[in-house]
Design goal:
By secondary structure, the protein is an alpha/beta fold. The chain contains 11 helices and 9 strands. It has a single domain (3-213), classed as Aldolase class I (TIM Barrel), CATH 3.20.20. 48% of the residues lie in helices and 14% in strands.
Length: 214
């Protein structure tokens, strides 16, 4: 899948699921549960042990899912993630070397930023989209305000996104939303209740669909 196709699928999906857990053994099972709920775009964070192996396994077992690597902090990690099969990269901050590696391999990159200056800096440095973090602090009104003077930049609010507030960010102009902590409920994972994750995914996808239909 070429870069433009990956970006189109991300936007079309409207929601990206972030998997950040303490052990590697649950990663692929979590990815399957989220996919069963309708999420076709997922990100495994590099802070999770065994993340590279999980990305590779998930790509093999879930070929329909767009699989990315998150919390990529440097160029070498970006390269390792791409070689493991990551189809896009996400960073928490503006990391120029990660953007450079992503461009070298033709992989979309979504750097994290907070202020309008950081957002524009990331875009001018070559970001394909810009992750606006932390979204729960900034709120949908911030997305709407930034989208006004910078409509050319696809904004991806991240942090504190749930099925209850995702629609507000979409209506404010977000290209898509990212959900993690609420989506991948740690207690549910610890108890092996993966159906909770599937239901959370279903609710998130439905919230985005409803907001786009308005």
């Amino acid at each position: 899948m070429v870069k433009e196709e990956v970006l189109a699928k991300l936007v079309d999906s409207g929601a990206l699921g972030i998997i950040r857990v303490q052990t590697a053994e649950d990663l692929v099972r979590i990815a399957k549960a989220l996919y069963e709920g309708g999420l076709s775009c997922l990100e495994i964070t590099m802070t999770t042990p065994g993340a590279l192996r999980a990305i590779e396994e998930a790509r093999g077992e879930l070929p329909e899912v767009l699989m990315g690597a998150g919390t990529v902090l440097d160029g070498p990690t970006a390269r390792q993630a791409i070689l493991a099969g990551a189809q896009f990269l996400v960073t928490p901050t503006v990391e120029l070397d990660v953007i450079e590696v992503a461009h070298r391999y033709g992989v979309p990159v979504i750097p994290g930023a907070m202020t309008p200056t950081e957002i524009l800096t990331a875009w001018e440095a070559g970001a394909d989209m810009v992750k606006v973090f932390p979204a729960e602090v900034l709120g949908p009104s911030f997305i709407k305000a930034v989208h006004g003077p910078l409509p050319q930049i696809p904004l991806v609010p991240t942090g504190g996104i749930t099925a209850d507030n995702a629609g507000g960010f979409i209506r404010a102009g977000a290209a898509l939303v990212c959900a993690g902590g609420w989506l991948v409920d740690k207690k549910a994972v610890a108890g092996g209740r993966y159906e909770v994750l599937t239901e959370n995914a279903r609710r998130l996808v439905e919230a985005v669909r409803r907001a786009r239909d308005l």
